[in-house]
Amino acid sequence: MRLNEISYDNAAPVDGYGAGFFRIGGTRFDGPIAAFATGVQPWGGYDDTATLIAQADTLDVLFVGTGAEIAHLPTDFRTALEDAGIGVEAMASPAACRTYNVLLSEGRRIAVALIPV
Question: Exposed/middle/buried for 97, CB within 10 Å: 0-12, 13-18, 19+?
Answer without folding.
Answer: buried
